[in-house]
Amino acid sequence: MRKAFAIISLLFIFSCDKKHDKTPAVATDNLKRSNERNDTKQDALSTEVALKKTNDELLQAIKVGYFDIFANYIHPQKGVRFSMYAFVNQNEDKHFTKTDFEKYLPTNTIFTWGSRDGSGEIYKATLNKYLNDWAFKKDFTKSEYSFNQFLGGGNSLNNLKEIYPKTYFTENYMKGSEQYGGIDWNALRFVFEEFDGKYYVVAVINDEWTI
Asked: Which domain of life is it from (predicted)?
C-alpha cells in the first residue's frame, strides 16, 4: 500500500513538472493584474532606476497581452498618445484617456492611426491590433535600453523633447541587420510624466528608418 502511494505521488509530481514546462518564456510573476500597479517608491530609488523597472514591466505586459497593466500607467489627466513614427503629430496621432483605452481595447472598433511612410497608405486597425502589430512589431523585451537618450535616429523629424518638455523617456532599441545595412532598426519609446507622486505614461512612440 505504501509503495503504491509512493508511486502515485511521484507520478503527480512528474505531471506538475511537465505542466510547468509549458509556461511562457516571459516571466510574469511580478506583473500585477486588475487595478494594481508595481509602483516603486521614489525615496528608495532614483527616477532613472524606477523608470527602468516600469519600462521593463510595460514591455512584458504588452508582450503577453496584459493590457490592463498598461492601462494602470496611463496618465489620469492627460491620457496617452500613440505616434507611429518619431514625429509626434498632436492633431492626428491617436489619443486615449484611461477610460477610453479600457473601453475600446476589447472591441472591434477600427481607428485611423496615420499614414505609412513611403506608400502613404492609411493605417487602420483596432486598438488591440495596433499594440500587437505596430507598437510591439518586434520583441522589445530583447532590445537595448536607454534613459533620456536616443539610440535610434534616421531622417525623420524627432520632436519628442519639444512636445514633451520636462518629462522623462525610455527607449528600447532593436538594431538593424547587416543584410539591410542596419536601416531596418526599430525603437519603442515611453514618455513619462509625474502626477501625484507617481510616474505615468503620456506617450508611446515608435521610430524607424523612413524614406
From this structure: Bacteria
